[in-house]
From TrEMBL:
InterPro entries: Adhesion/Biosynth-related, FAS1_dom_sf, FAS1_domain. This is Putative surface protein with fasciclin (FAS1) repeats. Keywords: Signal. Residues 1-25 form the signal peptide.
Length: 463
């Protein structure tokens, strides 16, 4: 009995050590044994089929970032075969040909900041850790497109082949192809809603304008609006090109950069000046009073896409008068019932050369408020207090026909439909004087429509 107890006493520490040793081991969902740390980088380095992406992580300087016992990352890990195909497609020998910066961008594009199991991916865009850098202090995350409609695809070509590998700092998915950071043209090709617009650009040989590395902003109408719209048009080639260019802007404009007001796009008027788009951010994200941004800030390597619910027709002057939040009273006056015989709306939409091109000196709302106080000092007057004939004369005094005057080519005097107006110019502004020598200053100049120019002014021109 004493012998058995003595023997048991010797064996017990060994059994306890063995229990502790094996209790520190665990299995992940795929039956892989996890010993100690099992971070993303640990997993990649322990599994030979991911050795190249593991080396890429190290070259990117992310070995520490993707290590640790906790975290919320999602990492897409291409296997060695996928990496070698990627290098071959680039025409390089291997990882040694990538710079540290290129390796970092590649790893970043395979990294999400939140954990996502395979079954939770839905069709749409995800922000990756990769950046579109504008300057030293401003950058935006590049987008990755997910399509889960029929099978789960990333950027229309990459599949998860080993899903939901548990790691200490998030979740890892083994994938069959490297995810390549896309240009804006690539994003349009892989999103079925945007493909029609891409194909129209391709048909008119416009892709070269947006495939360069220069930043572009593209407002893409969804196919269910674009396709029927084009089917009902009878565009000439030049008209169609201009229509498509009306959706393109030079530069990088995310919605946090855009402001209420006018921005030049790539379409041109007959005077070769670029046409404007009016943005109203007080009513959501509304363009030219007709098209809403329904998905914003889709970022590619050379620009940004905003998805529209309706096409952007090339604007005429009435488009801007109707859309501009500062011109509500002017628009109301032009469309007042007693002004309908003047047919202002159709005239300011026309581009047939009868009266076009126009120059419109458009009084802002406060200009009408001040004029009403001036004209009716002893009463609380409204627009309705101006009689028909006088209102027609006032409106005609802000319309010039058969000339589109930019600030640069404004003469010293211009003839409106009502009277002659005197002009004083500086490099960036002008002042008008009506027949009563009342002065009106420009508050926004050179708004270009397809049928003329609009300048916003702060004082009503009387006759």
């Amino acid at each position: 009995m004493n012998y058995s107890i003595s023997k048991l006493t010797k064996i017990l520490p060994v059994l306890l050590f063995a229990c502790v040793l094996f209790s520190c081991q665990d299995d992940d969902d795929n039956g892989n044994v996890i010993e100690g740390n099992n971070s993303i980088i640990n997993y990649l380095q322990k599994n030979n089929e991911y050795s190249i992406i593991a080396q890429t992580v190290v070259k990117a300087g992310y070995e520490g970032t993707l290590d640790g016992n906790s975290g919320t990352y999602t990492f897409f890990a291409p296997d060695n075969e996928a990496m070698n195909i990627y290098f071959s497609d680039l025409g390089i020998s291997g990882l040694e040909a990538l710079s540290g910066e290129e390796a970092q961008r590649l790893v970043d594009y395979h990294l999400l900041q939140t954990p996502n199991d395979a079954e939770n991916f839905t069709t749409g865009y995800l922000k990756t850790n990769a950046k579109k850098v504008l300057n030293d202090s401003v950058s935006y995350n590049l987008d990755l497109f997910v399509d889960s409609e029929e099978e789960l695809l990333f950027n229309a070509q990459t599949r998860i082949i080993f899903p939901n590998i548990d790691v200490d700092n998030g979740v890892l998915h083994g994938i069959d192809k490297v995810l390549n950071p896309p240009k804006v043209t690539n994003l349009m090709q892989i999103d079925s809603r945007l493909l029609s617009f891409y194909e129209e650009l391709e048909a008119e040989n416009l892709l070269s304008e947006i495939q360069t590395e220069d930043n572009k902003t593209i407002f893409v109408p969804i196919d269910i609006d674009l396709d029927p719209f084009l089917a009902n048009q009878n565009f000439t080639t030049s008209e169609k090109v201009n229509f498509l260019k009306n959706h393109l802007m030079e530069g990088f404009f995310t919605t946090d950069i855009l402001q209420t007001g006018y921005f030049k796009n790539r379409a041109v008027a007959n005077n070769s000046n670029h046409i404007d788009t009016y943005f109203n951010l007080t009513l959501g994200l509304l363009l030219n009073g007709t098209s809403n941004i329904i998905e914003q800030d889709i970022v590619g390597t050379n620009g940004v896409i905003h998805v529209l619910d309706k096409v952007l027709e090339v604007p005429d002057l009435y488009t801007f008068i109707n859309a501009d939040a500062d011109l509500f009273t002017f628009q109301t006056a032009l469309t007042r019932d007693d002004q309908l015989p003047e047919n202002y709306i159709n005239r300011l939409m026309s581009n047939d050369g009868t009266e076009s091109p126009f120059t419109i000196f458009a009084p802002i709302d406060t200009a009408f408020e001040s004029a009403l106080l001036e004209l009716f000092p002893n009463q609380n007057a409204t627009l309705e207090d101006i009689d028909t004939a006088n209102l027609t004369s006032v409106l005609n005094n802000h319309i010039v026909t058969n000339n589109a005057y930019t600030l640069e080519n404004l003469p010293l005097s211009v003839n409106t439909l009502e009277s002659q107006i005197q002009v004083i110019k500086t490099d960036s502004t002008f002042t008008l004087a009506d027949v009563q020598q009342r002065q009106s200053n420009s508050v926004r100049v050179d708004v270009q429509a397809k049928n003329g120019l609009l300048h916003k002014i702060d004082t009503l021109l009387l006759h």
